[in-house]
Design a protein that fits this description.
Length: 353
């Protein structure tokens, strides 16, 4: 008998209006999340890069905050710093971005936390069985959370095909070291025939991996973490290995498995927002036109199921190649890898509420 997980869909179609509080409460009622009086409940979000306009809005996060508080829990809304060197690279600057995007205690009724410390290196290793990575450095504050609710804006991604719950766990809940363990496989190469030795890559690299030698850029593979900031080369002389994206997805699934292993099944759940579905991640600090009209919100205890259901719904609305057209990849590798690690099932039952 094939195991089938449940994914619950609050569909926007056929509704004259959408009330976030009503939608989240109805979805939550179908989940069996354990919250005891006074326990700390982490609410994982991506608060959007500076300049982005399609990130998950605070007003869609507050209903979950209220649900947790009404059940006696103490909610904390959190994210971690980025590997790349922009506005969210450290906790202090990220807090500024959070404020600009409306993520405040006043708006949410909960504290906002950058979970991996000021510079993004505060964490501890979690060992896992199987996969490529044998241990992953998870953000320190995650260990202090009794339950975890993962809120993900489902969208396309140039490295993973799409980003949802698995990516929010594997990339969003770990330290810079945990991110580098995944990204390192994407360490870029210099096309010497295009390089003019301008030094842009040297100036932008936060890890000291780029240098100029004999008027040509070189990348020190020992120092390189694969953040891909150097792809901003004005001559287009730097590229990353496209054929390594499958392995990157496998490593991301390993990291997601490490985070999920910290919580019992009744202590973790997932919500995917199929709204403002864009071709690229909210890490891009630009406005992006959504690819399809808003669909609804999904909820599940299973990160594999919720991502598979989200992908199926988006592809049904926008065509099976909706993300492939932009990234020349489908992204199912992360689903297969996560399932093989015992994180969940690609077989599912969709229940509309």
């Amino acid at each position: 008998m094939v195991y089938m997980s449940q994914a619950y869909l609050y569909n926007f179609e056929g509704r004259n209006s959408f009330i976030a509080e009503e939608a989240m409460e109805k979805l939550y009622e179908n989940l069996n999340l354990q919250i005891d009086e006074g326990e700390i409940v982490g609410i994982k979000v991506h608060m959007g890069e500076y300049g982005n306009r399609t990130f998950l809005r605070p007003q869609n996060v507050k209903p979950i905050v209220d649900i947790v508080k009404n059940r006696g829990g103490t909610p904390v809304v959190f994210d971690t710093t980025t590997l790349y060197n922009k506005r969210r690279n450290n906790a202090l600057d990220y807090h500024d971005v959070a404020l600009e995007h409306g993520y405040t205690h006043e708006a949410l009724g909960a504290h906002v936390l950058i979970a991996d410390g000021i510079r993004g290196y505060d964490g501890a290793c979690v060992k896992i069985d199987g996969g490529i990575l044998k241990e992953v450095e998870v953000a320190s504050a995650v260990f202090d959370m009794d339950s975890l609710i993962v809120l993900s804006h489902f969208k396309g991604h140039n490295l993973t095909g799409f980003g949802g719950a698995i990516k929010n766990l594997g990339m969003g809940c770990v330290t810079k070291q945990g991110k580098a363990a995944q990204h390192k496989v994407l360490s870029p190469e210099v096309m010497e025939e295009k390089c003019v030795g301008c030094g842009t890559c040297v100036d932008i690299c936060a890890y000291g991996a780029s240098h100029i030698e004999e008027e040509v850029a070189r990348i020190d593979k020992e120092r390189c973490v694969g953040c891909l900031d150097c792809l901003s080369c004005p001559e287009g002389a730097i590229r990353f290995p496209l054929d390594k994206r499958d392995e990157f997805q496998e490593r991301m699934a390993d990291a997601a498995c490490a985070v999920k292993s910290l919580f019992d099944d009744d202590r973790i759940c997932f919500f995917n927002f199929l709204t403002d579905v864009t071709a690229y991640c909210d890490c891009l600090g630009v406005y992006m036109q959504p690819l399809i009209p808003d669909v609804g919100i999904l909820a599940s205890h299973d990160p594999v199921t919720i991502d598979k259901a989200s992908l199926d719904i988006v592809c049904k609305k926008g065509g099976k190649d909706i993300f492939y057209a932009h990234h020349k990849m489908y992204g199912e590798v992360q689903l297969e890898a996560a399932e093989s690690l015992g994180m969940g099932s690609v077989g599912y039952e969709l229940v509309e509420i």
